[in-house]
Each structure stands twice: as C-alpha cells, then as structure tokens.
C-alpha cells in the first residue's frame, strides 16, 4: 500500500489562507520526499530523503533544519515496493503531460516522479513571502520572481493529480526542481532534460489531511465557480 499524504488543499492558498497549519516535524512523519510552501507563501519547499530545502524569493536555496517551521500546504510520500525505476533519454513538460501520462494511464490516479540528470534549460518561479493581510496565490503569482538557468544537473520531484481532484490540488504535474549544488531551484515552469534517471510510482490512495483546529480553514467560503481557473493560472507551466 502506498499513499500520497497531502496537508490541507491548494484552495486555501487561492483563498489567501497562508498561515502554517502543520510543522515540519509532523509532516515528515508521513513522508520523506515531497514539496510545499512555508507560512506566508514563503518560497518553494523541496524535500529529498528527509532533507528539507527552501528556495526563497531571491532565488537562494536554504537548508531548513528547524522542525517547528510551519506550512499551510504540502504533499509528501514514502517510497514503497511499488516504486519503479525510470530512465528518459529526453524530457520536457509536453512529454510528461502527454506521452508519459498516456503511456502510464494516469488519467484517474495519483502518481509521483523523481528525475535526476542533466538539464539543458530550466525555468522556475518562487513565491515571495507575504505579510498579513495576505493576498491570494493567484495575485502573488502575477508578480512572482522567475529564474532560469542552462546546463545544470539537478533533481525534479513532484506529483501528478487527475482532473477529478482538481479542486483540492493542481491537476496534472506539480513539480519542483533543485540543482545538485543547491544554488538553484523552485516551482518548475519549463525544462528540457536529457539522460534523466529516477523513479516513478502510482499511489493506491491519497490521505487528505485537514487543519481542523484552524478557524480560518473551518470558516472560509469556497468559490468553486472560479477555483479551477484560478488554480490553473497560478500553477501554469510553460513549454
């Protein structure tokens, strides 16, 4: 049995509920690989084998060791016996979203991918830290720092979600990147990689964890009519 553990929903970020509702100590009990963001939408989080990295709004990569640090949203997992080795001679978002997703028949399942190797080009965004009163994720991403680099070795980590669950998380691939030298990373917008090796896993289920003791989460109203479009615009990858 292998599950994706997701704390809260991406909708809380769209709705500007950016206070942290789970600590890293608690989150890491549920997975040693994953991604997320910190309180106030403070950067992009990459978790690789229990090591937690934050890419902040300046593009600086920080190794986070304070287990009391909190997150409003995160997705993590523990690799299981279902994990499969993966090798791609060349890859970009088009391949992952179309050919790869079709070949692996992902339309109704959650999955994870981890790829390491050489990247000819990588473009990322980094959410800048916000102060109260918080704006929505959509408002933040309209003015987000964007960084790009070429000829870099690094790791992609992230998750695939089917359209059916597009109101609780971003449908399609949600991927973060970290370079081997820990000098570059963020939320992946576009990439071209070659000779990439890693792992792939389809989950048996998803454990959706809710911050039930957080009054803002319990009381806020969901705007379902505009939610999907807002998530797609805020996540939007580029080829």
Automatic annotation (TrEMBL):
Leading EC class: lyase
Pfam families, per database record: AAL_decarboxy (PF03306)
This enzyme's EC code(s): 4.1.1.5
CDD domains, alphabetized: acetolactate_decarboxylase
Catalytic reaction list: (2S)-2-acetolactate + H(+) = (R)-acetoin + CO2
UniProt keywords, alphabetically: Acetoin biosynthesis, Decarboxylase, Lyase
Biochemical pathway: Polyol metabolism; (R,R)-butane-2,3-diol biosynthesis; (R,R)-butane-2,3-diol from pyruvate: step 2/3
InterPro entries in the record: Acetolactate_a_deCO2ase
GO molecular function: acetolactate decarboxylase activity
Similarity comment: family membership: Belongs to the alpha-acetolactate decarboxylase family.
NCBIfam families referenced in this protein's UniProt entry, alphabetically: acetolac_decarb (TIGR01252)
Protein name as catalogued: Alpha-acetolactate decarboxylase
Taxonomic classification: Bacteria, Bacillati, Bacillota, Bacilli, Lactobacillales
């Amino acid at each position: 049995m292998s599950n994706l553990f997701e704390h809260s929903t991406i909708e809380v970020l769209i709705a500007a509920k950016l206070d942290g509702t789970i600590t890293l100590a608690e989150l890491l009990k549920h997975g040693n690989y994953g991604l997320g963001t910190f309180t106030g939408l403070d950067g992009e989080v990459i978790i690789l084998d229990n090591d937690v990295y934050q890419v902040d709004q300046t593009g600086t990569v920080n190794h986070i060791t304070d287990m009391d640090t909190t997150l409003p949203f995160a997705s993590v997992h523990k690799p299981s016996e279902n994990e499969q080795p993966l090798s791609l001679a060349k890859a970009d978002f088009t391949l992952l979203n179309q050919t790869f997703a079709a070949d692996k028949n992902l339309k109704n399942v959650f999955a994870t991918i981890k790829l390491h190797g050489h990247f000819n080009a990588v473009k990322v965004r980094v959410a800048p830290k916000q102060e109260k009163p918080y704006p929505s994720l959509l408002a933040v991403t309209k003015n987000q720092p964007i960084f790009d680099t070429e000829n870099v070795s690094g790791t992609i980590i992230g998750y695939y979600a089917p359209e059916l669950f597009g109101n609780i998380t971003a449908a399609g691939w949600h991927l973060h990147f970290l370079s081997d030298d820990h000098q570059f990373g963020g939320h992946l917008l576009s990439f071209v990689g070659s000779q990439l090796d890693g792992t792939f896993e389809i989950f048996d289920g998803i454990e959706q964890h809710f911050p039930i003791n957080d009054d803002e989460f319990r009381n806020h109203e969901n705007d379902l009519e505009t939610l999907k479009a807002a998530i797609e615009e805020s996540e939007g990858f580029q080829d």
